[in-house]
Design goal:
Mean pLDDT: 87
Shape: globular
Strand content: 5-15%
Number of domains: 1
Radius of gyration: 20 Å
Low-confidence stretches: 283-291
Order of helices and strands: HEHHEHHEEHEEEHEEHEEEHHHH
């Protein structure tokens, strides 16, 4: 297989059209997103520009070049989101569903990948090597994990089996307590657990103690693969959705955080903005809207 590197941004619709037109791909895996939850709470407009409108640009370029299939790599944080990152990824899923007729688009939703960029594993290893402390946000913080080979294999298989419009949910087992992971890493490193201290730093803006994968058995349907299920949520209504996106774009261009949160809440009714965002976006009025 011939590899060709291209430089560009999903926020640049013209550049995307150039790349898609030049290479005419049959299938695209769209994984470009800002994923760091606390950073996106502090940079709401950037999160939306990249994760929502960047995704919309990708689908626009795909539609123009007659792309056969597009797979959106989503997140467990899109389930009943409490963060800007989660809400924007849920919107990306809705964009994929609204575009499914033209590109056979599907989404794949899963949790954290061990060893990937931003994973706690290399961070903990660095802190342990320095003698500690190992920083954990909360003693009850839990996350789903899978390895890089597992994630890649299941995303590829979900992409192949998708017919268009599905949100696939990957089986990730039981969530792991982050403090237990930290303790195991300290032991495996050969360090003295009595000397390498664990420090609890506090839950950061937008974070949940435990992520969800849509109440895995209750809200999903089985597929032929035992580790891949389909989310059985309500389909998006394309007519109202397109207008909602335009209202969101206008609010972002005005840098009006209050209106942005209102638009996000209308597009993703299950979204519950964090107290951090509510305080920054004219708290009295916004709280009145969402009460």
């Amino acid at each position: 297989m011939r590899f060709r590197a291209e430089v560009g941004s999903v926020r640049d619709a013209r550049r995307l059209r150039e790349i898609f037109s030049a290479h005419r791909p049959a299938m695209v895996y769209h994984a470009a997103a800002y994923k760091h939850v606390p950073l996106m709470e502090a940079h709401l407009f950037e999160a939306i520009e990249n994760n929502v409108f960047g995704t919309r640009n990708v689908f626009g370029a795909a539609r123009e070049c007659g792309l056969e299939k597009l797979v959106l790599v989503s997140s467990d944080k899109a389930v009943r989101p409490s963060s800007a990152m989660g809400a924007t990824k849920r919107l990306a899923e809705l964009i994929a569903q609204s575009e499914a007729a033209g590109t056979r688009a599907v989404s794949v939703r899963f949790g954290n990948v061990l060893g990937s960029s931003g994973s706690v594993v290399p961070l903990f290893a660095q802190q342990i090597a320095a003698g500690g402390p190992v920083e954990v946000t909360h003693p009850e913080m839990r996350r789903f994990f899978m390895t890089i080979p597992e994630a890649v294999q299941l995303v590829l298989e979900a992409g192949v089996m998708g017919r268009g419009g599905e949100i696939f949910v990957l089986e990730m087992g039981e969530p792991v307590r982050i403090v237990d992971l930290a303790r195991k890493m300290i032991l495996l490193s050969g360090s003295d657990p009595e000397k390498v201290r664990i420090e609890f730093t506090g839950v950061r803006p937008g974070e949940k103690l435990t992520e969800e994968l849509s109440a895995y058995e209750e809200n999903t349907l089985a597929t032929r693969h035992p580790q891949i299920r389909i989310f059985a949520g309500k389909p998006v209504a394309p007519s109202g959705f397109a207008g909602g996106l335009e209202a969101l774009r206008a609010a972002v261009e005005e840098h009006d955080a209050e209106s942005v949160l209102q638009c996000l809440k209308q597009l993703v009714p299950e979204y519950e903005p964090s107290g951090f965002l509510l305080e920054r976006a004219r708290p009295e009025k916004v709280r009145g809207v969402y009460a």
